[in-house]
Each structure stands twice: as C-alpha cells, then as structure tokens.
Amino acid sequence: MSLLEPTDGLGPWKQFLCRACGLIYDEGEGDPDSGLPPGTRFADIPEDWACPICGVTKSDFEPYQRRATVAPISRPVALQRRAGVVIVGAGLSGWSVAEAIRAEDQHVPITLVTACDGSLYHKPELSVALGRGLSPDALRREAGATAAARLGVRLIADTVAVGLSPDRRSLRTTRGTLQYTRLVLAHGARPALPASLDPALCWRVNDLAAWSGLHAELVQGPRAVAVIGAGMVGCELAEDLARAGHAVTLLGAGALPLSELLPELAARRLLAGLQRVGVRYRGNSLVRGLSGGADGNIVVALADGTSLAAATVVAATGLAAPSRLVRSAGLAFDHGIAVDPTTLRTSGPDIFALGDCISIAGRPCRFIEPIARQAAVIANGILGRPHPGYAHAAPVIRLKTRSAPIALHGAPVASAPWHVVEESEQRLAMEQRHDGTVTAWLAA
Length: 444
Known about the structure:
9 helices; FAD/NAD(P)-binding domain; five-stranded antiparallel beta sheet; globular; alpha/beta; Rubrerythrin, domain 2; seven-stranded mixed beta sheet
C-alpha cells in the first residue's frame, strides 16, 4: 500500500477491482508503468486506460473494500491457539476469507494452514511477468508473516493437510492435529499432468514458488522453450516467454490454439498474434513422452513419430482439484468440492469451500473475479450474520495476450454457431444467440 497520504480533501485512497482478472487498482499506488503516478484518483483515469494485466478498460472495474487491518494483538498467544476458524490454503481465496472475517470480527481465532510460505501475490500476473521483467520479489505483494500479523491470524506455513475428521472437527496436518469450530477449504487446484509427461523434465506454473524456479532458469539467457498445451495459460505463457527473448514452440492438440473455447475466426486471430511475436505453433500435436538428450536438452516425442528438442519444457495441460483429503472425509466431490451454490457450504458440517477447488452443479469455478464475493458469503456464514448469499454468474474471460487480446462474455456453448457482428483488420466481434437472445459474445 502506498505511503503517500491524500491531500486533495477527497478522503482516503480507494481501491477498485478488475472484474476480469481480479487486479486491484489502489489510488495511492497508481499505475506508474501506464503513466498514472501514485495518488491518481480512479475518476481521473483516462477512459482508454487499460488494466495492466488483462487489458480491460476502467468500465470493467468496480469499487473494492479495503483490506481489514486489526490492532496489534494484545491477547495471550494461548488464546490464539484455541479452536476457531481453520482455513486450508494461503492463495487469494484463503487470505480473502481471513480478511473478510476480520472486516466483521476482530476477535474470532483464525488459523491458516498452507503448504507454501503464505506470501500474497496476484496469480494472473504469473503468465505475463517474465516479458515485463518482473522478478519473484516484485510479484510478492506481502510476506505471509506480515499479513498474518496485520490480520491477527495464526499462520502455519510449509504444512500440508493430510486428514480430515468432520465428526471430531479435527484436521490432521504434517505438524500435528488442529481442532476447529468452522473449516474453510481454499487449497486450490493442481496442474493436471498427463502420464506421458515426466514431472522431473517439465515445469508447471501454478503458483509463485513454481514460477520462481522457472524464472531462475530462464533469466540465464535466451533458451529454446516448448510449451505443451494451447489453452489460455499456455497461450499467455508462450507469448510472455517470446516477448522475453526466448525461442518458443507452442504445442496444441487442435489445429488452432484455444480451439475448444474460441470460434475459428477468433482462434486464427490469436494464432496470427502469437506468430507476430515469434511463437511457433505446432497444431494437432500430442506429446508421447519426454526424455533427456545427450546434449542436455529435453527431447519432446510426438505421437506422429516426430520430435523436437528444447532446453526448457513447460506443461500447461489444465488443472484438477485434489480430491484425496475431501473424499477420505466423506465430503461430496464432483469435478471439485461440491458446494451449495448460495451458501458455499460443503456436505460436511460447518465446512465451507471456495475458489479453484470447488464445483457448482458439477462445474469447476476457476475464476478470480468471484473470490471476493465468495469470501464475503463464507465470512458472514461463519459469523452467523444475514447475507443474501452467493449468486454465481459467468465472469468475463480475458485472454492476456497483448498481440491478440480477446474478451469472452456470457456463457458460450461449444456446439452453438457463432455469428459475425463486425470483422475488420482492427476488430472482430462475434456472438451466440438462443431464441433470439444473445447468450455469449466476444471481441478480439
């Protein structure tokens, strides 16, 4: 947060949330890289300003409540360790719940258990950070210990949850067993790595720790990089790595990148944009295996009998919510932890879940934008306070490829036809309709 104090008589600095990617614009910090110095009020931002992460304009931002801050803890440490709210996961979801609870109640004990160090960072930045010259330290917005002290939270870092007993209200971890009165599962999703890919030979970029390792390898100098998977993350990473000076080959299962989501016209625009920044695309390419080459490179063997060599391999082959912990506890699981669509309660007593690890009506909910609203619902549910509940709506899907930015709105249906509304060298607009009503639209 900015150390600059407001002097314009308009009150404290305000924050605004990007509905597309979850970036928070803080008036006190501004956006210096885009020409907005610290202290730039949101109302004074030019209308053509773009989100530095995903590229949407200021009309796609909404007011965001500032994070909670509690007074220095004066109660005994032993009191902090009594049963209370236990949160599993220190990503954006876990910290958002802790902050939402603290905004309403400064005294309920909160324990946050995480397999990482608990650092706060903005996950969407991982796929665009290298091309912008951002280091791991630059991405880290706040150390876990600092955030825990600010919120009066007991942080148990580098610790894995290994067992859950809903009847006994206990969570077994690699550092002992914790009792809870309410439990929040916010442990996210993990890379879904096909059996053909040796995890020792490829990077998976799903958190700051993994990205930091990849960053350390790539900053040594230009390298030949193979990115496996041409979905959203694969396309974003491929462009980012190419902009950072690496020779990138993007391997996709379809003839065009992101072909499962985009209509052909939009996918072709995306391909042309990637090629303009130097990405080489190999479509209809299924990877049969990885092996170490005699020259230190990694050999990527393809199903058609061909192969290619790369110094670095990155797998962007999708995500899967881990199920062992919840299934062993008898909680309902359907492509994610099944939750009530209004209260975000799981099938277990006083157990809530949010973020990448959940599913609603059998569909995963892996979006940044809803997390703040999900956290508010859970916080009020834990505290027993009235709340209208969570209402899930499809957020804007924004592909963060600057060479060919694409925004997808609504609820697209893969089998439904797309209609061209506008097509020119500068812009493509398309839409899907059902019974005369537009149900999805895109701009590229």
